[in-house]
Amino acid sequence: MKSRQMTRPLFPPPASWPKMARFLQQGTPTQQAAARVLQELKIFQVLAPFCPRLAGTIPIDVDLPGSDLDIICQAQDLYELAARVATHFGPMPGFRLRHKTREGQPILVAEFEYEGFPIQIYGSQTPVDHQRAWVHMVAEAYLLDQAGPEARAAVRKLKAAGLKTEPAFAQVFRLPGDPYDVLYQLGHRIAVHRLARPRRYGRK
Length: 204
Prior knowledge:
This protein is an alpha+beta fold and 204 residues long.
């Protein structure tokens, strides 16, 4: 069994797909495969009008076998996004498209599989900078960047035991309160603080 490749810090997470793709291409085997799959699908080109970003566990290397590639989008007209997704990815294995309501807001969730990766496209009217998946990943990337590889291994171990990502981070980093709210608040503070003082966090 091959040992895991040492993971480079991902903080701050790149918002643009070209920068994220370059990061993934130099990362773990799973990250490299994810970059190849997403480029083959041209998914960021297809979804370009909807501000797509890659979020989730694979960019920050706390994924498990079978983890999704999560692509978040902003769409004022979710039916327009749904039509584009169905046109380009409808023939893919396992394709499903659902309109739902979350926290009183309409959302779109599309799912399919490609080259062994489950892929989820999430659409909301909320700007991607403020969507929970992105803000949580900002907070999680920051925590991992500060703590090092032992924390990443601990998060992955808890996830393998059945915990969701956010509760696993809360337990490893001893974050009090609701894990989802605490990580959102932390991610928001980090984003605001980086705008005000861009050199304080991260590494040269």
